[in-house]
Amino acid sequence: MKITKIETQVLLVPDYDRDACSSAQDDIVVLIHTDEGITGIGEVDTNPWVSQAMIHARGTHVLGLGLEKMLLGEDPLHSEALWDKMYTGSFMTGRRGLGICARGALDMALWDIRGKVLGLPCW
């Protein structure tokens, strides 16, 4: 099984308040698609536009790639190895803060795929 596509969808309540201090107004949903028709879903509650940019960013070298680029063509069932690959490959773009949040959304989607393949709950 191989990862063929990664989609991100920013969710924002229609009447959001810029002055509010609530992350309940926005979210990012990540969908990882495979060549076998299985899609994993993940999400993270952080700035969705910045997460989206980190996932889809173009890179210029192996330590500064976008997260999507690191995952395309990989086996989604190797989630631990893919976490390590994303951690190493995001050296120049951020390993903490937003970086860990964006990787977490992708990791959640990878575990969702594994659960679906095995017929087991992710927890």
Explain how this protein is built:
The chain has 123 residues and is α+β, with helices and mostly antiparallel strands. The protein has one domain (3-11, 23-118): Enolase-like, N-terminal domain (Enolase-like, domain 1), CATH 3.30.390.10. Helix content is 37%, strand content 20%. The chain is built from four helices and three strands. It has helices at 48-56, 67-71, 79-89, 98-118; strands spanning 3-12, 26-34, 39-44. Strands 1-2-3 form a three-stranded antiparallel β-sheet. β2 (26-34) and β3 (39-44) form a beta hairpin. α3 packs antiparallel against α4 (98-118). The chain is globular. The mean pLDDT is 89.
Which keywords apply here?
alpha+beta, Enolase-like, domain 1, three-stranded antiparallel β-sheet, 4 helices, 3 strands, globular
What does the secondary structure layout of this molecule look like, with pairings?
Blueprint: E1 3-12, E2 26-34, E3 39-44, H1 48-56, H2 67-71, H3 79-89, H4 98-118
Antiparallel strand pairs: 1-2, 2-3
Helix pairs in contact: 1-4, 3-4
Summarize the structure.
The protein is an alpha+beta fold and 123 residues long. It has helices spanning 48-56, 67-71, 79-89, 98-118, and strands at 3-12, 26-34, 39-44.
